# Entry
Amino acid sequence: MEKRRFIKKLERNIGIQKIKSQIKAINMTLGFFIVAAAFAIYMNHSGMLLSYGIIVAGVAMIALALFLSYRIKLQVKLDNIKMDYRNYIVKPFAESYFIAGDFSKNGGLTEREIIATNMFSDTRSYKYATCNELKGTHKDVSFISTDVDEDCEENDIHVHGRFLEIRKKTPNVNPIVFTSATAPILECQNQRVHLINSHNDVINRMFRVYAFDEEEANSFLTENMIYKLRQIVGLQLGKIIRMSFYSDKIYIYFTTDSHSFEEVLTKKHDVGEELFKIEEKFNVIGKIIDIL
# Structure
């Protein structure tokens, strides 16, 4: 019931449903006047109530023309509607779905913050841009989610991805980074971040492991942590997955085909269906937090 009220509220704010309802009402009215005009013509043709038939036919035709003109204007207005999908659909839903939820289509991390996670190459040829920042709290765990565009002109690499920062304490002191086997080798200027050989064969098959200290990284890979990493992989988030564990934060990045929310709101969108699609993307965040 609560969700239905929320959908109706969104539809009122958007205005598309109001125009559709007006067009539907006009269509019914047009039908009435068409029947009235036809009946009046019939009366006129049969000789019954000739004067009344002429009057009714005239009034019906004038009303028909006026309503038809207004119907055409409404249809043109509906066809030309192009509204901000993220402001009218995603933002209000994020605010109601998560505790302290917020969404900004232009927000996101800076390049410096992205590189500081040690999950991305920091050579000059790589450039990063962010958008669609989503903030909130899931089961008392706060998070930030954002879209990341990774570009490297030197290697002609252009990748869309989704980045998630989770504020949750981890037992390690130094950063420990996992990248899936399909991910490019990290090119970090920080020489302390280096590729290590994990003592666990399962991890070696799934990830490359980067760390400052090999002993610390291996001690971090408890059976419980390995189980969690396997669950994350099981979510099939994207072709490339990167994870970084450091102090009181966990970072996760996975590739996507496009930005999370980039549609333009038009008459073809049904609010209920769109909320279902967005909810599926929101649920990914909850699943990751629940695992970790």
